[in-house]
Amino acid sequence: MLLHSVGLIPCSNQQKSFLFHSYYRYRCIVCSSETGLSIRRQALEQVDSKLSSGDERAALSLVKDLQGKPDGLRCFGAARQVPQRLYTLEELKLNGINAASLLSPTDTTLGSIERNLQIAAVSGGIVAWKAFDLSSQQLFFLTLGFMFLWTLDLVSFNGGIGSLVLDTTGHTFSQRYHNRVVQHEAGHFLVAYLVGILPRGYTLSSLEALQKEGSLNIQAGSAFVDYEFLEEVNSGKVSATMLNRFSCIALAGVATEYLLYGYAEGGLDDISKLDGLVKSLGFTQKKADSQVRWSVLNTILLLRRHEIARSKLAQAMSKGESVGSCIQIIEDSIDPSDI
Q: Organism's domain of life (predicted)?
């Protein structure tokens, strides 16, 4: 057929007509695909612009206008979720989930770095004492000064300066710690988008959070367009749909770490907030357990199903890509049959 089209072999008018219409249909498909991608890209650029200006409602409106459309945002709020019921711990284990390891994060990496910094500080103090021949009185006042600064940080900045130093040291000297934080936040971002909550932004270190927000009391993490959720919380009535969404988002970070490393180190604050939420809603222990177990199972299965998207998203976030660019990566990485 190719030989006919370039004139090397004679072809009939019927064959010429067939070739013309085949080529025309191919060009239409390509142009349609390119137009769809262009519309999505332009819309996501507008989303970035609205988020940068603080207009969260307009940003969410733009996303919802394209939600579920073939050339729009197919994956937003399109997560395939497990039926909601009371799952036993045995059922979680059958799905390869050890709830104790997942829900009891201990930051051993950062704890080790903190101990090393304390040892280095004490060693430095001893060296300075010997090098400068400090008297016991001078050493006392120097120690008193450091204690005062430490107390000031705890009282005035809620330990923000100490956390900043510790976190910055971790990112600088521990590639494992840095990678874990990036993967943790990618999990939050991906699950939020899939369950229908628009990410507003993210930071991967305390220093980045300080530079963006200008506050020592803000730690690294992901932020979301959550005014609808807050309105429900303030009214005292949180819908089951909204609770399910934010339960999965809260556990997405620890779930990502669990899948990658077999246990979680970060995310204790996320779990504490979820626990505080279900208690504030007056849940019984049985109902709270049911909510958490369903959220654990649902989140783990989502992350397993979309592992490639999470991996590509983490790479993009480590480069500081915008929210719109990250959404584009999610949409490009997930096959329509998986949603």
A: Eukaryota
Percent of the chain with pLDDT over 90: 50
- Report whether pLDDT(18) > 50: no
pTM above 0.70, yes or no: yes
Answer whether 174's CB lies under 8 Å from 111's CB.
Answer: no
* DSSP string computed for 135-152: -HHHHHHHHHHHHHHHHH
Segment 137-145 shows an average pLDDT of 63
Find tokens 């494992």 and name the residue: 176
Q: In whole angstroms, what is the distance from residue 164 CA to residue 217 CA? A: 9
Residue 295 · residue 248 · CB < 8 Å: yes
Decide if 209 contacts 160 (C-beta within 8 A).
Answer: no
Q: Is 71 left (phi over 0), alpha (psi -120 to 50) or beta?
A: alpha
Distance (Å, whole) CA 113 – CA 117: 6
> In the predicted model, what is the mean pLDDT of residues 287-303?
95
Tokens of 179: 């990678």
Contact, 238 vs 281, CB < 8 A?
yes
For the stretch 106-130, pLDDT in tens is 877 766 666 666 676 667 666 666 6
> Over the chain, what is the mean pLDDT?
81
Rounded CA separation 230/237 (Å): 10
- Give the whole-angstrom CA distance, residue 20 versus residue 309: 39
User: Cα angle at 222 between 217 and 224, to 5 degrees?
Assistant: 110
Q: What are phi and psi of 195, to 5 degrees?
A: -90, 0
Say whether pLDDT at 305 is over 50: yes
Tokens of residue 339, six digits:
């949603």
Task: Determine the pLDDT at residue 241.
Answer: 93
- 246 close to 229: Cβ distance less than 8 angstroms: yes
Cα dihedral angle (224, 227, 232, 238), rounded to 10 degrees? -10
Residues β-bridged to residue 73: 67
**Burial classification of residue 1, based on how many CB atoms lie within 10 Å of its CB (0-12 exposed, 13-18 middle, 19 or more buried):** exposed
- How is the chain split among helix, strand and coil, in percent rounded to 5? 75, 5, 25
